[in-house]
Amino acid sequence: MKFIIKHEIKGRVRIHFLSGEMTYRQADILQYYLMTNDSVESSTVYNRTNDVAISYNCDRKVIIDLLRAFSYDKTEVPESYLENSGRELNEHYKEKLITMVAVRYGSRVLLPYPVKIVMTAYRAFKYLLKGLKTLAKGKLEVPVLDATAIGVSMLRRDINTAGSIMFLLGIGELLEEWTHKKSVDDLARSMSLNVGSVWLKNGDTEIKVPYNEIKTGDIVVARMSEVVPFDGEVVDGEAMINQASMTGESIPVRKTVGSYVYAGTVVEEGEISILVKETGGSGKFDKIVTMIEESEKLKSSLEGKAEHLADKLVPYSLGGTILTYLLTRNATKAISILMVDYSCALKLAMPISVLAAIRQANDYNITVKGGKFLEKVAVADTIVFDKTGTLTKAEPTVVDVVPFDDRSKDELLRIAACLEEHFPHSIANAVVNAAVKKNLVHEELHSKVEYIVAHGIATTINDKRAVIGSYHFVMEDEKCEIPEEKMEEFKNLPTEYSHLYLAIENKLSAVILIEDPLRREAVKTIKKLKKLGISKVVMMTGDSERTAKAIAKKVGVDEYYSEVLPEDKAKFVEKEVDAGRCVIMVGDGINDSPALSKADVGIAISNGAQVAREIADITVDGEDLEQIVTLIKISKKLMKKIHRNYREIVGINSALIILGVAGVLPPTTSALLHNTSTLAIGLNSMKDLEI
Asked: Can you spell out the DSSP letters for 577-637?
């Protein structure tokens, strides 16, 4: 690519490309190419001027060579990045803003007065009609204020004031729309990239591949407890699908061959093979945008109060206008009140503050599904932790395999991994990883696997029933037997490890010993949570009393419960909520899902089960438990920002009203200052919180 250097200082250079006009798509390709290079610290592409500014941390020659090697055609960029970059959105609104200003001032200079009257009357009709429609519904809201101000100005034949009011209202509406849409798109873009891996069907076998490698026409498999990864048609199998995230239906829907399924829905029972019809990109992005814009979950109660307060103040503004005119007989002073309303700032700043906080949380790998949950987190006083994979290390490890039949340790581990890999959980991952390290490659010799929540997995291998899971499931529910000659060895199994039991044909075949060490940050996290106002920290686990007691003592929880079932966790959370406590539940497994849904806020660990992540209100990265501390800090700071916005909006707009009534500010100046302050507060609301 040919270019010239326009300006250069140490560590920064501005380049001009000597090609034709750069399109939005080409600008995004160049941006992606630069930002994915380790030598580039930051870059800004200006497609209008064919320029790019680059800050770098390497030798100058590296950057020059990098640019020389660049080609639009040879650079591979994810389609979702190009479709959803936001560059075209910003350019679109910039052009609209420039056009509005040019038309406004051009018409004032060039058009004769009679034409101005006609144009102003034509534009005023929209505002007057909107105000009348609002009144017809029995509502006194902001459109009534706007219509009154414009109508009074027109009746007074003050065309310039009416035109200025509409121009400033138009500018305000455009800036509000732009600011809000940009916030939503920024958030949706970051959320739409949170994808994992899926099972791709290749003939009779299944291969685990990254989500972004799937193409239209591929066949993927979704099993019980998994999230449907793509929109598509069922070509094999049968399942009960929970479509609440898409349609709001609370009852699962039966899907068979020929049925259509949607990305983001959950398989509650069964297994299906899906012919992929849509592979993310704009489809997935648009669905997330719709979810953000329409979901009631997005709105915190404070946002709702802001909107209610804004509309509630309208009658007072109208009353103040009438009273001012009656007392002063000065229409200009009266109109100044109409030019200032609290609604614009309240309705813009509050949602944007929430969207910015959600986006900031996403920067810390924390995915929040709505402002409502941030508000709940800010006032939470109780937190309930699952143990395995949550308080304990996210990646427990297999210490040993103790055989109880004539199979070798490696063969037993291979069989265990074959079963466990279909249902991701920290313990299951430990078994699969241990097999991978030993290069124990297996073929799918078993029939369909069945997951029994909080117990284990059952299947058939070579016409023999095989089960793997807890002692309660394998030894009590399945009534598997321990070989007589191995009874003493069974009794002497090491107690410091968690035990996973594998049985074939009702005979115990192996006990897999798993070390599940406490997360290094767990103790520090619990202490920080208590400092942030969490008064009750609880640990719940299906593990033995012995293991639970040891972990609880180390980590410093206030209460712990061992050998609990999923329904026990859910009942405990429900009891705490009914007692008036605000409860956060943190878990990573399918067995945590009922409790996650019962809590005021359900937090799932990102490397846990897909169904837990889908049900949860918030997802945190599995690498660091202290992200929960970060989440609480963001939530508390957000609430402070919202309350500060309230004070600023009420203070500034009240001052403008007083100055208007006093005759210090004419209506157009009041409108200008009102819109300027609204935009300033809105832009400030977009900034990251200091945590």
From this structure: HHTT--EEEEE-SGGGHHHHHHSSEEEEETTS-HHHHHH-SEEE-TT-TTHHHHHHHHHHH
pLDDT value of position 685: 80
Which residues partner with 560 through β-bridges?
539
Buried b (16+ CB within 10 A) or exposed e, 196-216: eebbbbeeeebeeeebeebee
pLDDT of residue 194: 46
Residues of the chain with pLDDT under 50: 193-195, 248, 250, 281-282, 295-298
pLDDT at 195: 47
CATH code 3.40.50.1000 region(s) in the chain: 366-392+518-622
What order do you get walking across the sheet with 583-587 strand by strand?
Answer: 366-368, 618-620, 601-605, 583-587, 382-386, 536-540, 559-561
Give residue 193's pLDDT: 44
DSSP letter, residue 21: P
DSSP per-residue codes, 303-327: HHHHHHHHHHTHHHHHHHHHHHHHH
Tokens of 501: 């039991």
> By three-state DSSP, how is residue 23 classified?
coil
DSSP classification of residue 295? -
The reported pTM is 0.62
pLDDT at position 53 is: 93
Q: What local confidence, expressed as pLDDT, does residue 188 receive?
A: 59
Among the four given CATH numbers 3.30.70.100, 2.40.50.140, 1.10.760.10, 3.40.190.10, the one describing domain 3-77: 3.30.70.100
Query: Token pair of 589, please?
Result: 């497994």
The answer to whether 514 touches 392, Cβ cutoff 8 Å, is no
Which SS3 state, helix, strand or coil, does residue 275 take?
A: strand
Q: How far apart are CA 652 and CA 165, in angstroms?
A: 19
SS3 content of the chain, % helix, strand, coil (to 5): 50, 20, 25
Half-sphere exposure of 467 (CA within 13 A, CB side): 21
Q: Give the separation between CA 267 and CA 86, rounded to whole angstroms.
A: 33
Report pLDDT for 145.
Answer: 75
The residue behind tokens 């798509």 is 25
pLDDT at 297: 46
Three-state secondary-structure class, residue 516: coil
> Do the Cβ atoms of 208 and 423 come closer than 8 Å?
no
The token duo for 376 is 């709940």
Intervals of CATH 3.30.70.100 along the chain: 3-77
Q: Is 680 helix (H, G, I), strand (E, B) or coil?
A: helix
pLDDT at 551: 85
Cβ atoms 355, 184 nearer than 8 A: yes
The answer to whether the CB of 356 falls within 8 A of the CB of 601 is no
397-515 folds as: Calcium-transporting ATPase, cytoplasmic domain N (3.40.1110)
| Cross-strand partners of 303 | none
Q: Where in the chain is the domain with CATH 2.70.150.10?
A: 215-278
- Strands 618-620 and 601-605 come out as parallel
CATH code of the region 366-392+518-622:
3.40.50.1000
Q: Which CATH architecture has domain 215-278?
A: Distorted Sandwich (2.70)
Query: Which DSSP symbol is given to 520?
Result: T
Per the rule left: phi > 0, alpha: psi between -120 and 50, beta: everything else, 442 is beta
